[in-house]
Design goal:
The structure holds 2 protein chains of 2 kinds. Chain A is mostly helical. Helix content of chain A is 78%, strand content 3%. Chain A has a two-stranded antiparallel ribbon. The longest helix of chain B has 27 residues. Classes of the chains: A mainly alpha, B mainly alpha.
Chain lengths: 292, 288
Amino acid sequence: MYTTALQIVLNSLIAGLVLSLVAIGFTYIFRVTRVFHIAHGGIYTAGAFATWWGLNITSNWLIAVLTGLLVAIFLAYAIEAAIYLPMSKRSSNQVVSMVASMGSYVVIVNCLALTFGNEVETFGSPFVGSVQLIGTTLTYVQLVQCVVALVIVMVAMYLGSSRRALPLRALADNDLAARVLGINTDKERKRVLIAGSILAAIAALLRTLDVGIEPQGGMSVTLAAAVVTILVSRLNVFLIVAFAVALTLLQNVVEFFSNAQWRDAITFALLLVVILFRTEGIISYKLRRDTA
Amino acid sequence: MNYFLHLTVMLEIYLLLAISANQIVGYSGLLSLGQAIFYGTGAYVTAIATINLGSYWVSLPLVLIACLLSALAVFYVSGRVRDLYFALSTLALQIIFFSLVYNWMTVTNGPYGISNITPPVLLGHRISSPGSFALFGALFLACVVLFYYWFVTTPVFRMIQAARDDQIGLLSLGKNPNYYKCISIVISAVISGLAGSLYAAYATYIDPSSFTLDESILILSIVLVGGIASVRGAIAGGLIFILLPELLKTLGMPDAIAANARMILFGLLLILIVRLRPEGLFGKRVLQ
């Protein structure tokens, strides 16, 4: 029983770290641009498929990963330039921008389905095998996921508390004041969308090493990241990672004691509880002012 | 001919769904991502009641009661918040609903679904062919459209719109905006439930895959493309959604590609509408 519990905790820690990469991107994008960026799921999947395609064409991991990242960056830039930024200049509210994001997601996912088919695609991971650790089993893929995600989380924590993140914090707090004080808000918005999309593409690559990827696969990950965003409701990388790991642990415990289909139900029941009983922590004064 | 009649039935079902979503999105200004909850409730109650009680007509009042109760549950949870958080709370309820129907094996038969749903019998005539179902669906649709012709002239309808446009103004008149939001959600739930009931009786088999978040997004998209706060807009959105793949087929596109191509065009249409024409094609109100 002790070993099983430890195995669940370790699995949750690693999967939670990978989820936190998506959640960090989603939270920053949501707080800075005020867009509930559902298209993040499309970019996540597109990044993974582009890597898969690059690997099939060149058989070179470096080129394949770069292809995935470039596709994610291109999509983020295109969505921001063609949709979000013009809508922001027109002072569209969050619901309207969410609908536009939903449209972008539908377009990306169906383009992927049209190009690559609806089946699950796998990489044929180069990391085959496992290690025993205090009675638990960890695959090499999990170790790679853990190391890569940990390094990126550390970098994100450093950047999140550095001076480079100050314009983003200013923008999240008050975009008008940030502009008045000379911050190039358009540039910062693009920066945050591109950085968030790079994180999503890396997370997608790490997950694809383990379970493969399908065109619709980005939605559930994005929604889980969105739940973390709403729970945390702050630009704090440490809290985002902690909540992502805790949420994954909760999902895995539920899956262990019941079945996999209750995972999402528990996640979103938690979201409902937070929306209903911790409203003041989620809908801040600023948000209400924006939507009034 | 049968294919044309099948399309007609599906068009009627989606028109009902679009009209129901328009009630919440257009007339109450609440972006709901949970329309498939009511659609699924109507379908499952019809399936279970028809099989256990032996008659489609006995199931109809049960559908109305179930939709009323589910609408009250949705209102209780989501009615406390608005704007983005209303959308998120309905999204959460939608996912919980799907998990419930997927896992509640003893009632819904989980992922295997419910088959052999008995078609309705009207005046001794068994309604099972696409032709008779097209007429049956038209009857439902006509009832709903006629209801709206009457409903838009009532003071309650004006109050629902007032609750959308100026809550504080309505409060200052001594009215409770939440009461009117609740009425709006109940009306929407009942119409969606009727669409679900029609779908269950027509398909004679239902499973959870028809009542997912994707379906809710689709229903919402139909209304936004057609135009909100207008029954004409909802009908236009439904027509575009159902007839678009037929148009693609006439261009020689295979079925497998047409399904994805339709969604791509629909997604693009959604982006263009939101960017360039926020009131939709025939809407009377800008999405805010």
